[in-house]
Design brief:
Helix content is 0%, strand content 43%. It is an all-beta fold and 329 residues long.
């Protein structure tokens, strides 16, 4: 997540025609493939189709779709490629970290705007996502909010709270998503482990980007640490016996940090593919010298038990999937 840095993360390479007579540079070959440039990527599986959303523009939230996770089409959002357009919701800039959930026949987009939490709805995963009453969920600086619905139907929200840097907090949500139950607000995670205290500039006191899973009665959370623009931005893992209970960070952390030639790997989310296999999606810096535009990556994941423990740890499987989209220009 970025802090008051304006970006346009979807950058498409412009390809000119060689002559007025040759109107298609790619007449004898397939169009070139380029990365899906998203920060804070999130993938929703709808039947046999995958939708990817992420941080890319101050105009709103774009969406891409795919049948195989490798080849993507778009942007396919209902409003000029945007699934959520700023004209339909609260705010003018800093549209970050979207997550989309399909609940009771309606699609809910949780997104950050101007460093506040907001929720919009749509009847279609491509949008348009709108707010009848353009507003934020809570009048407090918070980003990266994530919805978790427990087996008993209780709704929880987790988010990065601007307090002593960025900390992860959690709370119960009203059933209609209208408000946070303030009396349940609980600090969940804050900077503590050595790997979260990188000295590579820029330096930040950061725990953010929460995502919660439940398995065998235990709750698990992935989160990101270090400044998002640091090459040591990475992903950690924690577990708890209750949604708002005492969370313990894994001794195996980080679960992802600078794999292969990537740097700045963070802000993860989990999803299951059409074959019910668990995957993780996350972003990395453009390269070792530039942060933006950030690129999305996907890996299959297995949750495996630690030795002499029943705690599950994500095993990140190779190879990673690099989402690509064909340029039609």
């Amino acid at each position: 997540m970025e802090y008051k840095i304006l970006i346009v993360a979807f950058i498409f390479v412009a390809f000119g025609c060689q002559s007025e007579q040759n109107t298609s540079q790619f007449a004898d070959q397939a169009p070139p493939e380029i990365n899906v440039f998203f920060g804070d990527p999130y993938i929703l599986t709808v039947g046999d189709t995958y939708y990817m959303y992420g941080t890319s523009s101050d105009t709103g939230i774009e969406a891409y779709k795919s049948e195989d996770l490798q080849n993507w089409e778009g942007p396919v959002g209902a409003t000029g490629g945007f699934a959520l357009h700023k004209s339909d919701v609260y705010g003018e800039q800093w549209f970050w970290a979207p997550e989309v959930y399909h609940i009771d026949g309606k699609y809910y987009m949780f997104f950050s705007v101007e460093e506040h939490m907001a929720i919009a709805t749509s009847d279609n995963p491509e949008g348009p996502f709108t707010q009848e009453d353009p507003s934020v969920l809570r009048d407090h600086k918070s980003i990266d909010h994530h919805l978790f619905v427990d087996e008993d139907g209780t709704k929880y929200i987790y988010f990065a709270n601007f307090k002593d840097g960025l900390e992860i907090w959690g709370a119960e949500l009203e059933d209609d998503f209208s408000a946070i139950k303030e009396e349940t607000l609980t600090k969940v995670l804050s900077q503590s482990q050595d790997w979260e205290k990188s000295k590579k500039k820029p330096v930040g006191t950061v725990n953010e980007g929460p995502y919660v899973l439940k398995k065998d009665g235990r709750y698990y959370m992935s989160y990101s640490a270090n400044h998002y623009a640091s090459q040591d931005y990475g992903i950690g893992w924690a577990y708890a016996g209750e949604p708002l209970g005492d969370w313990t960070k894994s001794d195996e952390n980080p679960i992802i940090q600078n794999p292969d030639s990537l740097v700045g790997t963070g802000h993860s989310a989990f999803f299951r593919d059409k074959n019910d296999k668990l995957h993780i999606v996350y972003h990395a810096h453009f390269d070792t010298t530039e942060v933006h535009p950030r690129k999305g990556y996907i890996n299959e994941v297995e949750l495996v038990k630690q030795e002499e423990s029943d705690i599950l740890i994500p095993q990140i499987l190779s190879p990673k999937i690099i989402p690509k989209v064909q340029s039609e220009k």
